[in-house]
């Protein structure tokens, strides 16, 4: 068994998208939640967004939820960190964009790694699986109870990607998903986290993801194929960890990858939340 190394400095890099989210905030299951609704206002096809370390207020994830709403889904972004997400400033202050990072000296890289470790270590301890999974499971349970909800999916990013995968293990009708989508998940155990997948699962990975190398992605594909359930694994050439949510919108290649990853998820949910 190989185990993901955790959350790297790549998780702390990226771009903040411009734009004003159009949804609203309400409390669901005791958690503050951003809600983006389709024009029909129907929760029949609902998607739970399981955030990365930057949390539910990060503009990029809210704007993406708005796009899913435009595609006909009700999108929920719960504050599963209970007000303890990492600040957006880390996107630029802790780790520079990829072109700059590639030119850092060994001393600079070592210093950056130490700073990231000092920040993430305590945070990951506070939000370990024993704490976070019950919160996420409880929220999915609450969404299932919302009148008019027929099908529920989950999409996760980085830290949240693993929890979308774990949620796809469930068979309990009160908790189970109809489909899951994980974008560049971190801290995954291979094969362990994938052997238990029972529901349709789609993955989006970058070919330059420091947390999921080509060999590991190949192992994941083999495990999912052996499971025999509905699954797909798409690899985006030249993309780093976090690309689907925090890529550079001013870079045409990165923008195309983000757009395609969004389409991948929408297509997956249109198929399995119908």
Automatic annotation (TrEMBL):
UniProt key word DNA-binding: no
Signal peptide interval: none
Keywords, alphabetical: Hydrolase
Superkingdom of the source species: Eukaryota
Xref: InterPro entries: AB_hydrolase_fold, Dienelactn_hydro
Dienelactone hydrolase domain boundaries: 32-273
Gene Ontology molecular-function annotations: hydrolase activity
Keyword Hydrolase: yes
SUPFAM superfamilies in UniProt: alpha/beta-Hydrolases
PANTHER family given in the database record: DIENELACTONE HYDROLASE, DIENELACTONE HYDROLASE FAMILY PROTEIN (AFU_ORTHOLOGUE AFUA_4G08790)
Protein name (Swiss-Prot/TrEMBL): Alpha/beta-hydrolase
Organism: Lophium mytilinum
């Amino acid at each position: 068994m190989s185990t993901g190394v955790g959350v790297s400095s790549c998780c702390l890099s990226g771009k903040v998208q411009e734009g004003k989210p159009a949804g609203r905030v309400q409390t669901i299951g005791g958690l503050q939640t951003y809600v983006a609704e389709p024009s029909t206002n129907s929760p029949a096809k609902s998607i739970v967004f399981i955030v990365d370390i930057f949390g539910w207020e990060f503009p990029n994830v809210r704007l993406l939820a708005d796009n899913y709403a435009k595609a006909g889904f009700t999108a929920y972004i719960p504050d599963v960190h209970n007000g303890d997400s990492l600040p957006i400033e880390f996107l630029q202050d802790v780790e520079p964009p990829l072109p700059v990072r590639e030119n850092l000296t060994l001393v600079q890289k070592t210093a950056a790694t130490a700073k990231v470790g000092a920040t993430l270590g305590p945070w990951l301890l506070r939000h370990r699986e024993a704490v976070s999974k019950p919160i996420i499971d409880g929220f999915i349970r609450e969404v299932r109870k919302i009148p008019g909800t027929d099908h529920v999916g989950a999409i996760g990013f980085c830290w949240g990607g693993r929890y979308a995968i774990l949620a796809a293990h469930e068979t309990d009708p009160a908790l189970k998903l109809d489909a899951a989508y994980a974008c560049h998940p971190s801290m995954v155990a291979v094969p362990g986290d994938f052997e238990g997948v029972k529901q349709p699962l789609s993955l989006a990975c970058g070919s330059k993801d420091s947390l999921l190398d080509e060999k590991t992605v190949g192992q994941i594909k083999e495990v999912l194929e052996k499971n025999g359930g509905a699954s797909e694994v798409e690899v985006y050439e030249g993309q780093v960890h976090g690309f689907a949510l925090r890529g550079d919108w001013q870079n045409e290649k990165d923008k195309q990858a983000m757009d395609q990853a969004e389409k991948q998820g929408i297509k997956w949910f249109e198929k399995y939340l119908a």
